[in-house]
Design goal:
Helices cover about 35% and strands about 25% of the residues. With about 280 residues, the protein is an alpha/beta fold. It folds into 2 domains: about 140 residues, Metallo-beta-lactamase, Chain A (4-Layer Sandwich), CATH 3.60.15; about 70 residues, Orthogonal Bundle (Arc Repressor Mutant, subunit A). The longest helix has 25 residues.
Length: about 280
């Protein structure tokens, strides 16, 4: 395990399957981390020790388990200040994942300053209620799970979103961002030349998942049957139990979006498609 330079004083390493960012303030040994990986990793903690750094802060894109795995250990060793967006404070998933370390919650699009180094955040909810992008002073934009890389998207049949309709709105906003380089939470660095296309591929995937639900609901179905049929339509077959739970939750979230917008309606305890898909995110 090692930190690889992305741009100037911004580096990444992968802890389990999650990219962890590190920015050296003015090139020195005082650093800010962006997320901390999945499970607790002795190897990662040893890497910080070898680098001779003093971690002043961790800025979380969000508080899912695969982004907070070493946060408590970093807090205990370095006394680092922990940041996340305010909407994460009451996130039910956060409670499930056992976030019990102290967190400083910031407002939408806050600029977090650490020893004079400025880290703009960009509110991009959808994957979680308080999901945000984090930009280092080197203009490296950490995307968290707002989108998946093209390669990772190709293997993810039903990307998880707490609120898929909100996620689509965030992705439309993200298409207009302009930075030299972007870091997806899982898999790879996205060069600026491929960024807009990657965002659009994510948008297309989510629209397709909405369409699969609607096609499955041409005739009235109970909610559980609708979930099963939409997952089968998306290619899910014999998934690992834990992954299947995420997929069901994601499908239920999309069904709720469509019900809230009136695209799907409840009739006699069953769900059926009644309005045009174009209205689904309004």
């Amino acid at each position: 395990m090692e930190f690889k330079q992305v741009r100037k004083n911004t580096y990444i390493t992968q802890v389990d399957w999650t990219n962890v960012g590190m920015h050296r303030i003015r090139g020195g040994n005082e650093v800010v981390l962006i997320d901390t990986g999945y499970h607790y990793s002795e190897e990662f903690m040893d890497l910080l020790e070898r680098e001779g750094v003093n971690v002043l802060a961790v800025i979380h894109t969000h508080l899912h388990i695969d982004h907070i795995g070493n946060s408590e250990a970093v807090l205990e060793r370095y006394g680092a200040k922990m940041y996340a967006q305010l909407e994460e404070e009451d996130n039910e998933e956060k409670k499930e994942y056992g976030v019990d370390f102290p967190v400083t919650y910031t407002r939408e699009n806050a600029v977090i300053s650490v020893k004079g180094a400025r880290f703009p955040t960009i509110f991009a909810p959808g994957h979680s209620p308080g999901h945000q992008l984090v930009v280092t002073p080197d203009d490296v934009c950490f995307l968290g799970d707002a989108i998946l890389s093209k390669r990772y998207l190709a293997h993810s049949l039903t990307p998880y979103m707490f609120d898929a309709a909100q996620s689509l709105k965030s992705m439309e906003m993200m298409k207009n961002l302009v930075y030299p380089v972007y870091v997806a939470a899982h898999d790879e660095v996205i060069p600026k030349e491929e960024y807009r296309e990657t965002v659009q591929k994510n948008i297309n995937r989510h629209l397709r998942l909405f369409e699969m639900i609607l096609q499955s609901a041409r005739k009235p179905l109970d909610r559980e049957t609708l979930v099963d049929r939409s997952l089968i339509a998306s290619g899910v077959a014999n998934p690992e139990a834990r992954q299947y739970g995420w997929m069901v939750d994601a499908s239920l979230g999309r069904i709720k979006n469509l019900l809230d917008s009136g695209v799907l309606v409840r009739e006699k305890g069953q769900i059926v498609w009644r309005k045009a898909l174009k209205d689904k995110t309004k």
